[in-house]
Design goal:
It contains 18 helices and 18 strands. Helix 1 runs parallel beside helix 10, helix 5 packs antiparallel against helix 6 and helix 12 crosses helix 16. The longest helix is centred in the N-terminal third of the chain and has 20 residues. The chain is globular. The structure holds flavin-adenine dinucleotide. Flavin-adenine dinucleotide (FAD) binds next to strand 9, strand 17, helix 17 and helix 18.
Length: about 450
């Protein structure tokens, strides 16, 4: 949508083909009985002044500045997030704290005496935080979130997503000796009054005013290529199957699916496409009567015995997320498309989440419930298996062989990026399409450029 807006502002003719009924993708917001839900609460933070301006210009006074309030629930305790030294010491306890520090010191010394390259997520965390913290927080939660052993997840994921380099750094930051990084410690964030999707609904209006066409409920099913160029995109919508001729294509379709659509994928390419998979999320949205359930927007549930990885209360992001006198909760449950959680009935998921809430000390939700329903995200998190880099490279190279195509975004670039980077990719892609220029580096935008969200361990 960002690319479409940029292009139509410059008079380029654009058709957006969107599989869903609304725009925004993972950043969409849907409404149910006067309540609004994102697909997992989104906060807008960017280091790019260009993207910041782009969004502010479009949203104006509809953009709220919110203060973050998050807790991590572990072992019956609730830790403030970002961590606060007095809070951690009070709740973690002196004996446990000393054990964690000793374990960290052992890992630190071992790494200095015999440096080892961190291949997996587990290596990366143990080397920097010690075994004790890994066993308590990082390991179990990561396995819960990804559904695979942390030993089989690439260290890239930790390196890209955990900005805090080590426990040493955590302590320095907590003592105020080191300056906080932007994302992890950002207490303020921007949020549109009507949910994160409002950004893209606004973009959509302007695209249409500029003469762009947006086709909802239309799925791209294949592309027709000839002489190394895409000539047309085939879509399926309620009217059946038909083709849209084009001069250039910008795709946010998942990289493995799009690489297959372009055809001529060799055996190795096919194997790579099969190995690049996504973790799905099922969200249970619960509409409630009465006052807010807690003061927190995000509650991270790190223990695997609870179904949800995160519980959110959307009202804290914008008062317009629930009607007056009401609130809502969203339970985010990581799963595999088609597995038992994905296929369970709403009633089963509701019962499980309500009994988990009781165990967490959140009581009385059943009697306050007005309604509940699930929303599903099939491609939520790209899974960085140990050799995902080679598979990703192979598929990007395959896409690159077709000259008038750009693949980018979270699924399209198979990169765990935030919305601001996806939007920036859209702007760069729009420029490349207009200039018929270099395209390949777009999916690499901001690699290593301070992707800062220790919370992404839990997000
Ligand atoms: C639970 C969760 C929480 C998040 N929280 C934050 C946050 O707080 N802050 C933040 O900045 N980012 C957050 N993100 C990340 C953010 O959602 C993504 O970075 C962003 O949505 C990526 O945009 P995209 O356009 O690349 O992909 P998407 O948003 O996935 O958009 C892809 C679009 O392509 C469409 N599409 C795919 N295949 C087809 C097809 N064959 N035919 C037609 N249409 C198709 C989809 O319907 C979709 O609209 C979060 C993500 C998740 C899952």
């Amino acid at each position: 949508m960002t690319a479409a807006l940029a292009l139509t502002r410059r008079g380029v003719r654009v058709t957006v083909v969107e599989r869903e009924v609304r725009v925004g993708g993972l950043c969409g917001t849907h409404e149910h009985r006067g309540f609004r839900f994102d697909y997992g609460g989104h906060r807008f933070i960017t280091q790019s002044t260009e993207i910041d301006r782009f969004v502010r210009d479009s949203l104006g006074d509809q953009l709220l500045t919110r203060t973050r309030s998050s807790v991590v629930v572990n072992g019956g305790a609730r830790y403030h997030y970002p961590l606060q030294l007095d809070d951690v010491l009070a709740k973690y306890g002196v004996a446990r704290g000393a054990r964690a520090l000793a374990s960290y010191a052992r890992a630190n010394v071992a790494q200095r005496l015999q440096p080892r390259e961190a291949k997996s997520f587990r290596d990366w965390v143990v080397q920097r935080f010690g075994r004790d913290l890994y066993d308590t927080f990082f390991g179990p939660y990561t396995e819960k979130l990804w559904g695979i052993a942390p030993e089989t997840i690439s260290a890239d994921w930790a390196a890209q997503r955990i900005s805090i380099p080590s426990l040493n750094d955590v302590v320095l930051r907590l003592l105020g000796v080191r300056r906080p990084e932007v994302r992890t410690y950002a207490r303020k964030y921007l949020y549109p009054r009507l949910g994160i999707g409002q950004i893209f609904e606004n973009f959509e209006k302007e695209v249409a005013e500029n003469g762009g066409v947006i086709r909802h409920g239309a799925e791209v099913i294949s592309v027709r290529t000839s002489r190394g160029r895409v000539q047309a995109v085939a879509i399926r919508d309620e009217a059946g199957e038909h083709e849209i001729p084009c001069d250039a294509v910008l795709s946010t379709i998942a990289l493995p699916a799009f690489a297959r659509m372009l055809g001529s994928l060799d055996r190795e390419g096919e194997a790579s496409a099969g190995r690049l998979r996504f973790r799905a999320i099922r969200m249970l949205n619960v509409l409630l009567e009465g006052p807010p359930v807690s003061p927190h927007t995000w509650m991270y549930i790190s223990e695997p015995s609870y179904l949800a990885a995160r519980i959110q209360e959307p009202l804290h992001r914008s008062p317009s997320m629930a009607p007056p006198g009401c609130t809502s909760l969203m339970f985010e449950v990581p799963c595999e498309a088609g597995d038992a959680v994905w296929s369970a009935s709403d009633a089963q998921i509701y019962e499980r989440c309500m009994s988990d809430a009781d165990r967490l000390g959140i009581h009385g939700l059943r009697s306050r419930t007005i309604d509940s329903f699930s929303s599903f995200v099939r491609e939520g998190y790209p899974i960085y298996h140990l050799d995902y880099g080679a598979d990703r490279e192979r598929l990007l190279a395959h896409v690159d062989r077709t000259s008038n195509v750009i693949t980018c975004g979270r699924q399209g670039g198979f990169r765990y990026i935030f919305m601001d980077t996806a939007m920036e990719m859209g702007l760069r892609a729009a420029e490349a399409i207009e200039a018929r220029g270099a395209r390949r580096n777009i999916s690499e935008l901001r690699v290593g450029g301070g992707l800062i969200e220790a919370c992404a361990l839990t997000a």
